[in-house]
Amino acid sequence: MNGTASYECPRAGTSRAPSRRPLIVNPISLETLLASVGKEVGLSPWRTVTQTMIDQFADATDDHQFIHCDPVRAAAETPYGGTIAHGFLTLSLLSAMTFETLPPLEKATMGVNHGFDEIRFLAPVKSGARIRARFVLADVKARPSGWVQMTHDVTIELEGSVKPALTARWLTLAFVEPEKDSA
Predict the structure, then answer these.
(1) Domains of the chain listed by start with CATH number
(2) Cβ distance 154 to 132 under 8 Å?
(3) Which residues face 108 on adjacent strands?
(4) What pLDDT score was predicted for residue 180?
(5) How far, in Å, CA of 92 to CA of 10, rounded?
(6) Among 40, 42, 38, which Cα is nearest to 139's?
(7) Which end of the chain, N or C, is surrounded by fewer C-beta atoms within 10 Å?
């Protein structure tokens, strides 16, 4: 082993790098989460969007348009000077940036994507660009069923650019087993 930790992806049987989650991310209580509504709650580390990532996303989605996969043609025929990431690739990186940045909810057994109320792709992400996500907690709804719905206003920033790559209103759910009456 070369000192780099990895794990086996159970479905694909491929080796993957370990999570980038910082070592010190303490879970937060529902009360702390509720008190954070309206506040910026996280800023992810910068992440480089590589041509390899773009090509792999193209393979996964069957979207091989030249603006994503042909650096020579994209440099000659587009205003971008080279290839750009798929908008949905940039959007999909929110999951990883969330996991790296936001603390988990105390006693949550799982989290799921619940969708988006709004997404706007505002600037292209060129191959080699660095992006990061800024999270503002817009709303929290704790349901009696144990599901906690969180709404984040997210901005994916492009290093060196005033204009963000995208903005979104993102809804996620975390499940916290309801407390059983001890009577």
Answers:
(1) 27-48+86-176 (3.10.129.10)
(2) no
(3) 176
(4) 77
(5) 21
(6) 38
(7) C
Which run of H or of E encompasses 147? strand 147-158
Q: Check residue 16 and give its pLDDT.
A: 44
Give tens-digit pLDDT for 159-181. 999 999 999 999 999 999 887 76
Q: Give the pairing of strands 47-48 and 147-158.
A: unpaired
pTM above 0.90, yes or no: no
The kind and range of the H/E element at 48 are: strand 47-48
Nearest Cα residue to 54 out of 26, 23, 80, 28: 80
CB 150 within 8 A of CB 139: yes
Residue with tokens 């069957």: 62
Mean pLDDT score, 114-133:
98
